[in-house]
Amino acid sequence: MKIGQLVRRSGVSAHTLRYYERIGLLPYADRDRSGQRDYDQSILTWIEFLGHLKATGMPIREMLHYAALREAGPATEAGRRALLEQHRERVRAQLARLADCLLVLDAKIAGYAGTSKRMKDYDAALPERRQRPPAARRAGARR
Q: Which of 52, 67, 84, 62 is nearest to 21 (CA)?
């Protein structure tokens, strides 16, 4: 499949695909007679997996390490598994931090849920607060 078709099917830009190929995240594509990249169908699964790693915050250097292990074959399965397990723990920790943040946001939003009542009470009392206290009015009158 040509790069344009791979872009459409993977949702990854041609620039990103070329970059991934250049740094070694993607294997070099075969070239057709005119020198254009010609990708195998199986590359879509790998690109999708890289997208998941990227979305979960795996640094490119770790993605490269995983790709190198994958390229080395079945003897590296334990290393690949360990790398993914470590990443999974970081993702879980991040999810826990995000859950805490979500609770804070929910509490803040809930506080605003009663805002219309509080604002109505505040607005109703506004004319009283605009008047200066009697002592301040008397002091101003003496000047």
A: 67
Other Cβ atoms closer than 10 A to 1: 17
Helix, strand, or coil (residue 30): strand
pLDDT 10s digit of each residue in the chain, 143 long? Answer: 898 999 999 999 999 999 999 999 998 888 888 888 888 888 999 999 999 999 999 999 999 999 999 999 999 999 999 999 999 999 999 999 999 999 998 888 888 877 666 666 666 666 655 555 556 555 555 55
Collect contacts of 123-127 with beta carbons under 8 A, ≥24 apart: none
For 112-129, b/e burial (b = at least 16 CB within 10 A) is: eeeeeeeeeeeeeeeeee
Cβ atoms 56, 63 nearer than 8 A? no
